[in-house]
Write a structure and sequence with these properties.
about 450 residues, 16 helices, mainly alpha
Length: about 450
């Protein structure tokens, strides 16, 4: 009974419930990003080869994003559907959805591991790796990819823990991996003399520990919905893939645009191409940091929205949506002011190369110029996901990255923007994509929810 009450989001203050869920997730997001970024921080400060090594990891970044995309496919596809089923009182269906998601992560993870490991030299060369950076990219990624299944389980199954109300347990998933990675990184990179290989080994060990924690918890007695074995329900898998395609496409298209950006920066950057790719690597790292609090708010609001949508309580869905919008706006304005007016100190955390700091600061001011607009994109996108509107969620995920960012990245350099066109593409896409996504969500969903409250 205690567990059932813990996962019931239909009672009490919506604001308090969202923040009760959001704060541990927010902390977990910050820690998760921190231990990913710790790799880049230590690599960027390696004596003599730091800039080239950091750029090499940047070359591998699109493939790393693609791996997390598969975790998103089953995590963001299964967890909201499981919450909606619980809101409808159908815990058997919720468990079946969870089991199907878990099984598919293992199957797909094994396939991705084999393809990425053997195809790494070709993929990394196509992504912009050259004689200077390819050895570092290959050394890091070939070890990292061996941890694909643990990565998918820890990232993809954690939403099932959070959506049942066990956000502190979900936070521990991240803390365990983070603590190990932070401790192991300097030991393996410097003391053991492994360089970028040491950073990858530390990450893999950390992800294995996190995955073991997730499996132990979800097969234990505390969860409302447990993993009781392996198995795939064809009907549920179809729904998971339909909704999860949004999260997958968001990450996959991000991977594609990163790849295109690296190629454009290499082509148009000339003798400074390594500095520009290094700048984008740090910008991606900074963006991950800035998105942590927003992702916490979104992750806190999502189960509340999904559960109450299933329970037929539109006023609570609308309230949670409002919390998500205003919370993310406040956070994004705060980070925007830092990255537009004082980006240099953030870059100095990752590198002591003055040229990289100067180049990166110039690029960051353009890239983050309209960053608060991302709150509209986040709110619209995650509302479509939370309430099971997969077609809208998928379209607007593809609109910003594939229809806008990718073509603009290729086109703007020819229109007089030069190499900076790769950074202006992000800003222009935010204006169009975020406005279209939020407006559609408001007209299609939020306005109807408000009418239903009367």
């Amino acid at each position: 009974m205690a567990n059932s009450s813990k996962g019931d989001f239909s009672q009490g203050s919506v604001l308090k419930t969202v923040f009760r869920l959001a704060l541990p997730i927010m902390l977990a997001e910050i820690v998760h990003i921190t231990y990913n970024i710790v790799d880049r921080l230590y690599i960027g400060r390696m004596p003599e080869v730091g800039t080239a090594a950091l750029t090499g990891v940047g070359v591998a970044f699109p493939l790393i994003s693609l791996i997390t995309a598969f975790a998103q496919l089953f995590g963001t596809g299964g967890a909201p559907l499981s919450s909606i089923a619980r809101g409808q009182g159908d815990n058997e269906k919720a468990g079946r959805i969870q089991q199907t998601s878990f099984t598919m992560m293992i199957i797909v993870g094994a396939a991705v591991t084999a393809i990425m490991f053997f195809g790494a030299p070709l993929f990394l060369s196509l992504l912009g790796g050259d004689e200077e950076t390819l050895p570092y990219a290959l050394a890091y990624f070939r070890i990292y990819v061996l941890g694909t299944i643990p990565v998918m389980i820890s990232l993809g199954m954690n939403p099932f823990i959070n959506n049942q109300g066990f956000t502190r347990t979900g936070m521990m998933t991240v803390l365990i991996g983070a603590a190990l990675n932070i401790v192991l990184d300097p030991i393996l990179i410097y003391n053991a003399g492994m360089g970028v290989k040491g950073a990858a080994v530390a990450t893999v060990i950390s992800q294995i520990a996190s995955a073991v924690w997730v499996v132990i918890f979800l097969t234990g007695k505390r969860p409302i919905v447990r993993i009781r074995g392996l198995g795939v329900s064809g009907t549920d898998l179809k729904d998971i893939l339909k909704l999860g395609s949004t999260g997958f496409m968001f990450k996959a298209t991000n991977s594609i645009t990163q790849a295109i950006t690296n190629i454009v920066l290499k082509s148009w950057g000339g003798a400074m191409s390594t500095l520009y790719i290094g700048s984008m690597t740090i910008i991606n790292s900074v963006r991950e940091i800035t998105m942590c609090p927003c992702n916490g708010i979104v992750s806190g609001a999502t189960p509340v929205m999904s559960f109450n949508y299933g329970a037929g309580k539109p006023e609570r869905v609308s309230q949670a949506l409002g919390v998500m919008l205003w919370g993310s706006l406040i956070i994004n304005f705060a980070f925007w002011s830092i990255m537009v007016f004082a980006p240099g100190w953030m870059f100095s955390i990752f590198t002591n190369n003055p040229e990289l700091i100067e180049t990166g600061s110039k690029c960051a001011r353009v890239y983050f110029l309209l960053f608060p607009m991302m709150s509209l994109q986040l709110t619209g996108q995650n509302t479509f996901i939370s309430l099971n509107y997969p077609k809208y969620a998928l379209f607007f995920s593809m609109l910003r990255k594939i229809i806008l960012v990718a073509p603009l990245t290729l086109l703007l350099p020819y229109l007089g923007f030069g190499v900076m066109g790769a950074f202006w593409a992000e800003t222009i896409s935010q204006i169009i994509g975020a406005t279209a996504c939020f407006t559609t969500m408001y007209l299609k969903i939020w306005r109807r929810l408000k009418r239903a409250e009367i």
